Every structure is written in C-alpha cells, then in structure tokens.
Amino acid sequence: MNVELYMNTLGQKARDASRLVARADTGVKNKALLAMVAALDSSRATLVEANKKDLAHGRENGLDAAMLDRLELNDSTIDGMIEGLRQVVALPDPVGGITDMNYRPSGIQVGKMRVPLGVIGIIYESRPNVTVEAASLCLKSGNATILRGGSEAIHSNQAIAACIRVGLKAAGLPAEAVQVVETTDREAVGQLITMPEFIDVIVPRGGKGLIERISRDAKVPVIKHLDGICHVYIDEQADRAKAVNIALNAKTHRYGTCNTMETLLIHIAIAADILGDLVERYQAAGVELRGCARTCALVPAMINATEDDWSTEYLAPVLSIKIVDDIDAAMSHINRYGSHHTDAIVTENYTLSRRFLREVDSSSVIVNASTRFADGFEYGLGAEIGISTDKIHARGPVGLEGLTSQKYVVLGDGHTRK
Amino acid sequence: MNVELYMNTLGQKARDASRLVARADTGVKNKALLAMVAALDSSRATLVEANKKDLAHGRENGLDAAMLDRLELNDSTIDGMIEGLRQVVALPDPVGGITDMNYRPSGIQVGKMRVPLGVIGIIYESRPNVTVEAASLCLKSGNATILRGGSEAIHSNQAIAACIRVGLKAAGLPAEAVQVVETTDREAVGQLITMPEFIDVIVPRGGKGLIERISRDAKVPVIKHLDGICHVYIDEQADRAKAVNIALNAKTHRYGTCNTMETLLIHIAIAADILGDLVERYQAAGVELRGCARTCALVPAMINATEDDWSTEYLAPVLSIKIVDDIDAAMSHINRYGSHHTDAIVTENYTLSRRFLREVDSSSVIVNASTRFADGFEYGLGAEIGISTDKIHARGPVGLEGLTSQKYVVLGDGHTRK
C-alpha cells in the first residue's frame, strides 16, 4: 500500500466532506448520531467479535492487563459509547451562533459567527470508545474527522467505523465525514500530521512520548497537553478540614488521571499541625510519600524527594510533599515545575486567593476545591475532546466550542468606506 | 556577534519580563504608554536625525519612492505614533476579565479569566511606526515583545526603542518588556521563530514571501494572513445603486490594502444592465479591467482574464470581473480562488444573504457593504496587530483580545469530587 497516496486521498475526501458537514443543520447531525446509537446497539455481537481478534492479538503480543482492560469491548463499554452519543445529541450546537452583533459608528453591524474548524485529525491509543467519542464531538461541531487509532484496536475500530457510517448515511451525510484510517502502518501518522492542505488541527490523545513526537513533527496546529503535574498549596490560613479533604481527594480519587495532584505544597506555619493527620490518611490509602528535607524532618521515615520528583507525573499512588515559606515560594515552585495544567490553593484569605488566581499561569486555577474538578463534564462543557495546556486557541478542557472558530459577519445597507 | 546566543538572551529576558508585565495593573501600563508619548514628543529631533541615516542608506541601496515614503519619519508621522499610543491608552484592558462565571451542579463556580499569551515576536518591514504600534498593543494586553524590524529602518527603530524604554522605566516596568532586535543579521529571524521556550506566538507583517517563509519554518504558532483576494458578488436581486457604490468603493478606496476587492463577480441576469455604468466609472478612475469570456462579450475591448488572474492579489488599480450563473457558482469561485480574507454579497434577497453568511468560509463575510470595512478600527477593536485568515486562535482583524488567551478559574468551599 502506498501510504502517502492513501492518506492524501483520505485528506482530500475529508476536505470535500467538511464543506457539507459545516452547513448541516443541527437536526441532521443529531439524526446521524442517533442512527449511530441504533447501529451500535444492533451490532453488539459484531463489535464483540471484532474486539476478540484484537484481544487475542494483544495477548499474543504481551499487552499488560491494564492495556487489555482498556481495549475490551463488552455490553457495558458499548452502553457507555451509546450513552456518550446521547449526551452529545443533547449538547447545544455551537455552529452558526452569532454573538456581539453591534452597530458601529459607520452604520454597519458587526458580529461574530461560530464556524467549524474544518477537518480534525485524531490520533489515539488503545481505547476503541475514543473512536465514537471523538467522531461524535467533531460531527456535532460541524467538522470532518480522520481518526487514527492504535494498531492494537484496529478490528474494533473498523467495526465501530461501520456503525458510524450507517449513522451518517441515515442522515444523508457523506460517509467521508468520519474516516477511520484502515492501515496500521506508522507512516500514516507521519502523513496525517503533515497535510496542512487537508487537516486543520490535530488532537493527539495518549502517552507523553506520542504527543511530544507529534508536536515536534506536525505541520498543522496541535491541541494537546503533555502532562499534568498538578499542585495543591495549603496556605497558612487554610481551613484545616477543607485542606485535608481536598489534599486527599486530589491525590486518591483516581491515580491515573491528568488532573490528579502530584505535589502537595504546605505553608511552613501550618505544616506541623496538618502533616500528622494527612500522612496517616495517605498511608492508610497506600500512597507512597516523598518529602523535602523539612517535611522529612517533621515526618521521620518519609522518603527523601529528589529534584526529579518535583517534575514527575507519577500517575500512581505516589505523592511528593514540599514545605514552603509563603505563597510566593509556592507559586514560583508551581510556575517552575508544574505543567500549566491545574493548580489549587486552599486558603480562607481573600487577598491570597485573588493573587493565586491571577498569578498562577495554568489552564485551570482553583481556590478551595480539588484539582480533580478540571474536566469538561465538571465544567459544564458536556464532553471533552481533550485538555489543552497551550495558550493558543483552546486552553483547559476542550469541548465543542474548542473545535470551532469564529468569523466576522458584517451587515450593511449599501455602506461604503469614507 | 553570536546571533543564536544573542537571541536566546533576548528570549530569556523577555520570558522573565513577561511575568511582570502579565500582572501589571492597567494604570501602570497606561502610565508607561503615556510616558512613551512624552518621550517621543521630546525626541522629535533625535528621531528625525536617526531616520535620516536610514533614508540616506535607503537611497544608496536604491529603495523606490514608495518604500522611502513608508520609511520616513517627520512631525506628521510622529504625531501619528503619538495619537496611536493615546488610542491604546483609551482601550479597555482585556487582562484579568472574568466571564461566564456560573455555579455547577457540584457546587463549584467555574468561569474564564483572560490572560496574556506571554511573549510575542513581531517581524515587520520598512515602516518604523509599527514599532510603537505593536509594542503598545502587546504591552496593553500584558505581553512582553521582541520586535524585529527591517534592516532598512534599523536606526529609526532603535531611536524609537529608546523612547519606549523611557516609558517602561517611568512606570516601573522592566526594560525587557519591549526589546527591539539590534542586529540586522537575517539569522536573527530564523532564531526568533524557532524558540518555543521563549516565544509564544509570532506575528509577521509584510509581503507574502516573508510570511510564507516564516510560516513554513516557524516552530511556534504564527498569526498571519498571506494575502487578501477579496470578492464582491453582485446578485441578480442586488439594488443597482448599492451595487455600483460598493463595487467602486471596494476597489478604488485604496489599492494597496489587503481588504481591497480583487475580483468582481456578477450574476448573469444583472450583468448587461450594470456593467456599462460600472466599466465607465472604473475607467474614469483609471482601473484596468480584465474580464471572463462572457464579460468580454458584453464589454468589447476589455482584456481577457487568464486563470492566474482569479488567484492574484493585484494591490493595484487592476480588477478581474467574472459573470456567474448563480450564488452557488459565486460561492464556489470564492471558496476556490479566494484567500478566506473578506468577501461580500450585494443582494436584497433575505435567503441568499443568509446562505452567503453561513457558507462562505472567510474571516469576514459581508452583506451590502464594502470589503474595505474589514479592519480592526471599523470593527470596534480599537486597533489591530494584523488580520488572521487562519481558524486556530484568532480569525479576522486581531486586536487586544487576540493577543490574549483564557484560563479556567474555579471557586469552591472545600469541594471534592464524588
């Protein structure tokens, strides 16, 4: 197979289809999404069958239990995909919305209309449900999509793609509105990210290595976050109970998510008082603790944190703890070692909360709540295609609006420039 | 001079300064801008002196009259810079503005706070007044800037830079908040656009060749437009008088601007009626006309347009004219040959105006007004750093808001994820 030619053909078809998707009515897009629901529901046996091939290959190739778990399709994961589609149907359609329409001194009216980006390339790893999730968000936001899943999920993804095509057809939308790459050749990714004439933006989902590689080589914009090194800073004037609850929740609610706290910063004046209780509860939860010198002095038998610990995303029951002298030391630690993802302060002090919100340079800044809230659903976006730690275009959880742009619309009545 | 080292040093200093500029109050930024006004006003002789060197060099190097004209600083151009600064002082400060702050079902409040991008690199050609304009917009939007002007304006730009530094100092802002590159070595541009660790976005202003080169080689996002191939489509149901006025204004108001019409599209049913009058008035204005076959059949002695004409930005008193069968033909011509900059329809038909607004994929779409309105001042942005025809981040005229991003702010009261 000539991968370059194949990907170029996919790209051209996506570009053509994108014009039709961009102007599709909300009702038509919802009809397609609901027809996908019906197709997935009636294809359960086929999906599970295809998935079994992937699982068997996976076992042969020595995938670990966690990866096999993420790869598996069963009634419950198919229910999850269906529920996800129904949620996207329920979301308001951002496309065509006109805002800020005002008269100007010249007499013209100027406003902004929300428009799709065009063609979105999604690159992801093992979980096949991402195929449905990404396709539905791109479709609802009026974009065409090219999806490149992991080679370990190729059969599952193709079976899902067939259901997506059934849905598109039922609504009279072109099949090329959502295309799932059929080759597992790695060169396909290289092509996908270097076709600015066909692809408007790439959204990679996966490990840091994958995303770094894509960002480095891409010739189109990439919406991404590399990692989530999130902090909670417990200020001297923190409410003790809130601080303990938030610090526990931010670490132990889920270990493998990007908005999980990796480093806890504690004001020196409250450290002795709060650490005893916290350490006990972390240890009860099975969290390994690594402390700075001052922390280790207060809590003997704690592991000494190394310089590397401050910039490590553990994604595991491990937490580094540092005692700081004041909010300035906390914020400079966060801005230096953090990944600009999500950082929280626990304080009852009005002025310090205001400073933290303004001065911490992260995509989400939080006062008196767990970092685990940094999420499209919790923020009310309805769903998220990913989280961006960049500042260009979208920042933070990216929902339907992040998959669109705005154009200016001008209404006149024969107006000319003076 | 080691250009790489020099540029890296500039970059590091800009990154450090950007944190201080980001948190500067509106009053402090305005104080700096007004101190720049005073410094420019009291340095008129020095500025004109420095500029004379550039003009002399320019003449030696055979710059044409138009370029020398753009390069010249005199009392009137200095007045213009001062007036521009005063306008930026008057603009509202976008930084820190919080919008969409709402309670979520979990009890947390979520909103978005507008934040600076960080460090902006500006690359531009001969006009030294861009130095003040770009610096002031970046400063007001809380960003640090590195400015790289044309080598032909180096003495003028350094003299202006000195006034900018006086202004920064008077307000207690770091001198590195605005840095003007002191070397004319071309390698400096190559460095500037490949330092993602120090530069967050590049805004190039200049010819298409410069911008294409920068976009191709940059390792950071670029806010740009390549060219402005703008269209006016006169529909069958256009008001004749509005159509003639708009078509004339869009072409003849100014020839060298990116929002000037380059191709006029006319519905076949109105062409014979309107072309006689229009051609006469274009010819009176000295505009050379190049028509499609049907246009030439109606207006004998008109030059035949070639395929190249449809994708040429003349920036001159030249206009290509094409007769089309309907709005679909017009829109497909625009989407194919246009540059997604600014396109207008003249029609009294409600349904067609609505279709044109939705389906034309340009950064500005206009009904019954001249394309010349596509401009930051006319749109009420107060000023513009440039016009973007991209869809990622900013689109259309880019003002202060386009030089910022948004972060999520979350307010809780001890909230944890369930």
TrEMBL record, chains A, B:
Domain Aldehyde dehydrogenase span(s) in chain numbering: 74-285
A molecular function (GO) held by this record is: glutamate-5-semialdehyde dehydrogenase activity
The record lists the membrane-crossing segments as none
Q: What is its EC number?
A: 1.2.1.41
Q: Which UniProt keywords apply?
A: Amino-acid biosynthesis, Cytoplasm, NADP, Oxidoreductase, Proline biosynthesis
Where does it live in the cell?
Cytoplasm
Q: Which GO terms describe its biological process?
A: L-proline biosynthetic process
| KW NADP (keyword) present | yes
Q: What's the catalysed reaction?
A: L-glutamate 5-semialdehyde + phosphate + NADP(+) = L-glutamyl 5-phosphate + NADPH + H(+)
Checking Pfam families in the record gives: Aldedh
Q: In which pathway does it act?
A: Amino-acid biosynthesis; L-proline biosynthesis; L-glutamate 5-semialdehyde from L-glutamate: step 2/2
InterPro entries named in the record: Ald_DH/histidinol_DH, Ald_DH_C, Ald_DH_N, Aldehyde_DH_dom, G-glutamylP_reductase_CS, Glu-5-SA_DH, GPR_dom
Q: Which GO cellular component does the record give, naming just one?
A: cytoplasm
Which SUPFAM superfamilies would you find in this protein's record? ALDH-like
The protein's job, in short, is: Catalyzes the NADPH-dependent reduction of L-glutamate 5-phosphate into L-glutamate 5-semialdehyde and phosphate. The product spontaneously undergoes cyclization to form 1-pyrroline-5-carboxylate.
HAMAP family xrefs: ProA
**Family in the record:** Belongs to the gamma-glutamyl phosphate reductase family.
Instruction: Identify this protein by name.
Output: Gamma-glutamyl phosphate reductase
Native organism is Neptunomonas antarctica
